[in-house]
Write a structure and sequence with these properties.
Chain B: Pfam families: TPR_19. Chain B: InterPro entries: TPR-like_helical_dom_sf, TPR_rpt. Chain B: One of its GO terms (biological process) is vesicle-mediated transport. The complex is a heterodimer. By secondary structure, chain A is mostly beta strands. Chain A has two helices and 31 strands. Chain A starts with a strand and ends with a strand. By secondary structure, chain B is mainly alpha-helical. Among the domains of chain B are: 174 residues, no CATH class; 87 residues, no CATH class; 79 residues. Chain B is 60% helix and 0% strand. In chain B, helix 13 packs antiparallel against helix 14 and helix 26 runs antiparallel to helix 27. The termini of chain B are far apart. Classes of the chains: A mainly beta, B mainly alpha.
């Protein structure tokens, strides 16, 4: 990690150590029984070993903390913490020491030092310590630049710099998919994959909706009064594991009308992801604003306002449709024609006039149907035709 | 069907061979030439039930494919054997059979020719055995009570093929039994010298010859060449020397370097020697070496690993000579070799046998499922033994799953282990809490730590309080609060000043709080005041890491640590943590 300029004899030494969380020491338990040759010796050795758990020496995961032995990986969204130590290696008192730590990325340079004031003097064998924290916000090459300036006892001003280069990697792979329901709701399925090398605990994955929508998260169910996640007992993501999160977005009342006739791209909201790894090491990322391509509706749009979830066989049930004139200029004359299928039958008069529908407005229609066949019916319900001067089209 | 020898012969059984010299000698004087000793027929009981002459008995040894050549050296030192036989009762002096001749291949080859020497001396051991019995108060009762302990401890459920072979050995005891070589265990040392002292090597490199010369460790030659000497080497952590001593003793038994694949025989003692050698290799981290030598033992279920296979050596005894702990070791080794699935499979097999034995006992049967009249106390003792063995296996399985990083299954397995080791409940629950901390699920970790607090309320004394404080400290670590974690670790030190874990962990927290010098002071004080417990890999890793962070003069300080280690640690010390290489 160190990328250093040629060495000069300096009175001070600068050392840097990345402070990832410590790890727990694991033992290798070897036991035997009283009747065996070693008797109690193996057990005694384990009891004397300070890294075993008192009273449960067979447990591999001990309680002894070990400092990190290498730099490790660092991922976007995590916090980069580092110990910076300046030590007086000489036998003279050094004055006016200024330590600066900057982080240089491809796009910016940030100052990380806790304090920018100079230290008046540093005696031999003493050190100046600093722990810096920085939430990593960019991927790619980062360079930690540490600069030390000081004055020797003889009055000579000295200066040196050290560079530490590291790469920031991407921790998550996020894919989204939109589903447009026949109602005005939009469903968002987000697939999140852990592309790091260690397990990740998803603390919070939420969708922050844009101003037009209200969001309901569909990733937990109420079971016996408690909120239980839909992910079962597997509360964490192993490397390369993927999880699907589901959200339901409903346009707010004041935007409901507009939503029906919006064309093109709309902004839905963004995903906010907070995760934790070893000993609570935290990471946080957000996606950029998620965009959805509104489905093309052409001139006329039919949507369902109300429809029951289940109906009984051969019992009439009601639905409410909304017909929206999406065009901006044409007034439409609507005629309703009902077509029966083998399983769905209309109760009403087919071929009746629905009246005129002005541009950018809609009308609601209450209709009655009955089903003669059991099971899940996914069918083209009915057709209606409308015409206006010069045009004949069918809509379904 | 009960074996022929069982009924009515128990009173004649030689005292438990695990650590008594008596039957050892019997095992080690298998003749190659066929001159039967007349006094032997006295020993093997009711003449009516045997085939007639003892000569037929000896014939079986020579004409079968199974030829025992164990301890070819025993003949040359038989007199020494006998003197130690006078130690009766529970004395563990089986080392008698392996006196101080030096190990080496040349001896074992010569063994074949010394076999004839042994024959003429063979009557002696048996008269000594009689003396042993004559001496003790109630030899038969002693033999019986010992046999209860043995029976429940050695009980095992052999696989079908093995069972068939054992039955045929029992029913055809005086005529030839042909056993396919494939079903026999023919181990041998795969490397004969791993003595060495990494600490001394480092001292030579960094501190010079004079300093290195001061380094004293026990070698295999420095101790009594017996089990006593072996235990000495183990307890002072000179495990390499201990591995070597096991090797010598096994070589004397005929299973030395180059003997792998050659027909041999086993005794309870020789298996204990193998177990200790393999266990120490694992403790030293020499997993490949252990694997090489474990291979010959297959699944630890071959017929020649059972007492029934040697009806003339262990009359009336049944069960496996393989120590239970060896089965655990055999399974666990695989996970250290990178085959955790194999480890789990082996552990499952052990678990299945333990469960079946427990079921048999609970249904009023003997361990092996046969009808038996075991007294209630003995039944209870057996249930307790097998229950604790089952607990050991379950802990092992949980550890293996943890190593595989299958945290969901590991947590379930630790919960199952709690059922069998309820006295370890708070420690196991704390351990599960730490697993959740490692995953990053701080909330669930907190729930577990709260459960521990409930459970430890009933405990009085230091242990419970320490556990609770330790867990609180860890929770704060998980919440990034190093200051609070430090406070709790320090609180533990207040009530338990010698707690090395709390000391180490408090020092680690200081580093994260930007206090390098203070952290170093704390760790150095710990190492100076209590070297016995704190010259531990993990502590030294932390210390040397911080030395490197502190200054460019870390080398001197690391060398000072080397000196401290040299004065206290045995040849098993893992020098990597000194970062001197």
């Amino acid at each position: 990690m160190e990328v250093n300029p040629p060495k000069q004899e300096h009175l001070l030494a600068l050392k840097v150590m990345r402070l990832t969380k410590p790890t727990l020491f694991t033992n290798i338990p070897v036991t035997c029984e009283e009747k065996d040759l070693p008797g109690d010796l193996f057990n005694q050795l384990m009891r004397d070993d300070p890294s075993t758990v008192n009273g449960a020496e067979i447990l591999m995961l001990g309680e002894m903390l070990t400092l990190p032995q290498n730099f490790g990986n660092i991922f976007l969204g995590e916090t980069f913490s580092s110990y910076i130590s300046v030590h007086n290696d000489s036998n003279q008192v050094v004055k006016d020491i200024l330590v600066k730590a900057d982080l240089q990325t491809s796009s910016q340079r940030l100052n990380l030092s806790a304090s920018n004031a100079a230290v008046a003097e540093l005696k031999p064998d003493c050190c100046i310590d600093d722990v810096i924290h920085h939430e990593v916000k960019e991927i790619g090459t980062h360079i930690l630049v540490c600069a030390v300036s000081y004055t020797t006892q003889g009055g000579e001003k000295m200066y040196f710099r050290k560079f530490f280069k590291f790469q920031v990697l991407k921790p998550l792979d996020v894919k989204t998919k939109f589903y447009n329901a026949e109602t005005d709701e939009v469903f968002l399925e987000a697939q999140i994959q852990n592309i790091t090398t260690s397990p990740m605990f998803m603390e919070k994955v939420s969708l922050e909706p844009s101003i037009m929508y209200n969001v309901a998260e569909l990733n937990s169910v109420s079971q016996a009064g408690e909120c239980v996640t839909t992910f079962g007992s597997r509360a964490y993501l192993q490397p390369m594991d993927t999880r699907q999160y589901l959200y339901c977005l409903k346009p707010k009342k004041e935007f409901a009308e507009k939503a029906g006739i919006i064309k093109g791209v709309t902004v839905i909201g963004k995903l906010d992801i907070v995760w934790k790894t070893n000993l609570g090491e935290r990471g946080r990322l957000q996606t950029s604003q998620l965009q959805r391509m509104a489905p093309g509706y052409g001139d006329v749009r039919l949507s369902l306002e109300a429809i029951p979830d289940t109906v009984n066989l051969e019992e009439p049930f009601h639905i409410t449709c909304k017909i929206t004139n999406c065009s901006s200029e044409r007034t439409m004359d609507l005629v309703l024609e009902m077509c029966n299928t083998n399983s769905i039958h209309w109760c009403g008069i087919s071929g009746r006039q629905l009246g005129k529908l002005h541009p950018s407005s809609s009308l609601c229609l209450a209709l009655t149907l009955l089903s003669s066949v059991q099971g899940l019916q996914v069918r083209s319900l009915f057709s209606f035709s409308f015409w206006y001067p010069g045009m004949l089209t069918h809509g379904h | 069907p009960p074996l022929l020898l069982r009924d009515g012969f128990e009173s004649q059984m030689v005292k438990s061979p695990s650590f008594s010299g008596a039957s050892e000698t019997v095992a080690k004087t298998p003749p190659q030439a066929v001159q039967p000793s007349p006094s032997l027929s006295k020993f093997f009981g009711d003449p009516a039930s045997t085939n007639s002459l003892a000569s037929d008995f000896f014939d079986s040894f020579t004409t079968s494919t199974f030829i025992s050549v164990s301890n070819p050296n025993a003949g040359s030192s038989a007199p020494e054997n006998l003197s130690s036989l006078s130690t009766a009762g529970g004395e563990r002096s089986p080392g008698a059979a392996e006196p101080s001749h030096s190990p080496g291949m040349e001896k074992s080859e010569a063994g074949v020719s010394t076999a004839s020497l042994e024959i003429s001396q063979s009557p002696k051991p048996f008269s000594q055995i009689q003396a042993v019995f004559a001496g003790s108060e109630d030899p038969f009762a002693t033999a019986l009570s010992m046999s209860e302990t043995d029976r429940r401890s050695d009980a095992w459920l052999p696989g079908e093929a093995t069972r068939d072979i054992l039955i045929s050995v029992a029913t055809q005891q005086y005529s030839t039994v042909f056993v396919d070589k494939e079903s026999l265990t023919m181990p041998g040392l795969k490397f004969d010298n791993i003595q060495g002292d990494a600490v001394k090597d480092l001292m030579l490199r960094f501190l010079g010859e004079r300093a290195a010369a001061k380094r004293q460790v026990l070698h295999a030659e420095s101790v009594e060449q017996t089990f006593v000497g072996l235990r000495q080497l183990i307890s002072c952590k000179n495990w390499r020397a201990a591995v070597d001593l096991c090797g010598r003793l096994l070589t004397a038994h005929g299973q030395g370097y180059g003997k792998s694949g050659l027909p041999t025989s086993h005794t309870a003692d020789s298996l204990q020697l193998w177990f200790v050698r393999l266990a120490l290799l694992v403790k030293l981290g020499l997993f490949q070496n252990a694997e090489m030598e474990f291979e010959a033992f297959g699944n630890l279920d071959q017929p020649d690993l059972y007492y029934e296979y040697y009806p003339h050596v262990y009359p009336g005894r049944r069960g496996s000579m393989v120590p239970f702990s060896m089965r655990i070791l055999h399974a666990e080794l695989q996970q250290y070799l990178g085959n955790p699935q194999e480890a789990l499979d082996r552990l499952h097999r052990v678990k299945a046998v333990c469960s079946k034995i427990l079921t048999n006992l609970e249904q009023g049967l003997a361990e092996d499922g046969t009808m038996s009249s075991i007294t209630p106390e003995n039944r209870q003792a057996s249930i307790q033994l097998w229950g604790s063995r089952l607990g050991r296996v379950m802990c092992s399985m949980a550890n293996c799953l943890l190593l595989m990083k299958d945290y969901v299954l590991a947590v379930d397995a630790y919960h199952a282990a709690i059922q069998h080791c309820p006295e370890q409940e708070p420690q196991l629950l704390s351990g599960i809490g730490r697993i959740f901390l490692q995953i990053g699920d701080i909330k669930t970790a907190e729930k577990y730590f709260q459960d521990v607090e409930k459970v430890t309320q009933k405990l009085d004394g230091l242990q419970g309080k320490t556990m609770v404080l330790m867990n609180r400290a860890f929770l704060h670590l998980g919440q990034n609060n190093f200051a609070e974690a430090h406070r709790f670790f320090t609180e533990i030190l207040r009530i338990d000043p010698t707690n090395a874990v709390a000391n180490n962990n408090a020092a680690v927290c200081l580093l994260y709080l930007g206090k390098l010098k203070d952290s170093l002071r704390q760790l150095e004080a710990m190492v100076q005041q209590d070297p016995k417990h704190s010259l531990h890999e993990s502590v030294l890793f932390n210390l040397t890491t911080m030395y490197e962070l502190e200054s460019s003069r870390s080398m001197q300080k690391k060398q000072a640590l080397l000196e401290a280690v040299a004065g206290k640690e045995g040849d098993s010390f893992n020098t990597q943590c000194l970062k001197l290489a």
